[in-house]
Write a structure and sequence with these properties.
Helix content is about 60%, strand content about 10%. The protein is of the alpha/beta class and about 260 residues long. It has a seven-stranded parallel sheet with strand order 3-2-1-4-5-6-7, with helices on both faces. α4 links the parallel β4 and β5. α1 packs across α8 and α4 packs parallel to α6. The chain is globular. The C terminus is likely disordered.
């Protein structure tokens, strides 16, 4: 897909990956509708980039539906829908049900709801593109938050299903699975910060994948190698992840202690 003169929607646009995608898509000549539940920050960033802003809370189906209907009413068709909004909360199974439900709604169901309302019209046209943001955690895992790991696995699985089911009917699907990217999402993840890439690197990967209509988009050369290692020897990979989690938690504890020391000083 070439973006010039296309109508593109980006959710989670107020910061991080969504903000970077919005800015670059505008520069590529697309008509971009940026959306976020943070109306103040979202409006500001959209205005600076040249996008139109629509406030929407994608943790509810009604928010996704109203966003899509707003774009249909104002811009007409939607060529590319970037279901990018995501959150990271919770720890293990002890995380409250309310946290599990919220992260499932944002990280998984928002993709489902977008497809539910977009696909009938896209299928009627015989074309449409869905870009769903998951995470390398969907291919591998996440070392701090079980809800994040579980929902990103589910997001990837849903994108796979869409690509398989509708790929022969004109629907293109790409799934963005980045490792650490310098956004607010990794501010409490020192291990990810060690190899984090800029949003500029991520955006270039997205543009290349969209131009080639590739399904899987990664940001680090290690992602697919780790995925292959996982498939070839699951037990060995789990052992490595245990050791890596020990390192990650140690770094996190050290950062917390350092921060406490700075506050006391």
């Amino acid at each position: 897909m070439e973006l010039e003169n296309k109508t593109v929607v980006v959710t989670g646009s107020a910061s991080g990956i969504g903000k970077a995608l919005t800015e670059r898509f505008v520069r590529e000549g697309a008509t971009v509708i940026a959306s976020d539940r943070n109306a103040e920050a979202g409006e500001k960033e959209a205005g600076a980039s040249g996008a139109r802003f629509v406030a929407a809370d994608v943790s509810h189906e009604s928010g996704v539906q109203k966003l899509i209907e707003d774009v249909w009413a104002n811009e007409g068709e939607i060529d590319l829908f970037c279901s990018n909004a995501g959150i990271a909360i919770g720890a293990g199974p002890e995380s409250p049900d309310a946290q599990w439900r919220l992260i499932e709604n944002v990280n998984v169901m928002s993709h489902v709801w977008a497809a539910r309302h977009l696909l009938p019209r896209m299928l009627e046209r015989g074309e449409g593109y869905l870009l769903n943001t998951a995470s390398a955690a969907g291919l591998l895992t996440e070392l701090h938050s079980a809800p994040y790991a579980v929902t990103k696995h589910a997001a990837l699985a849903f994108a796979e299903w869409l690509a398989i089911t509708y790929g022969d009917r004109g629907i293109k699907v790409s799934c963005l699975c980045p490792e650490g990217v310098w956004t607010p999402m990794i501010q409490n993840a020192p291990l990810l910060q060690q190899t984090a890439v800029t949003t500029d690197v991520l955006v270039e990967a997205v543009l290349e994948a969209l131009s080639q209509e590739k399904f899987l988009i990664t940001t680090h050369p290690t992602t697919l190698q780790s995925f292959q290692n996982k498939a070839q020897d699951y037990d060995n990979w789990i052992g490595k992840m245990r050791r890596l989690r020990t390192k990650a938690m140690s770094l996190l504890q050290g950062a917390a202690l350092s921060g406490a020391g700075e506050k006391q000083a």
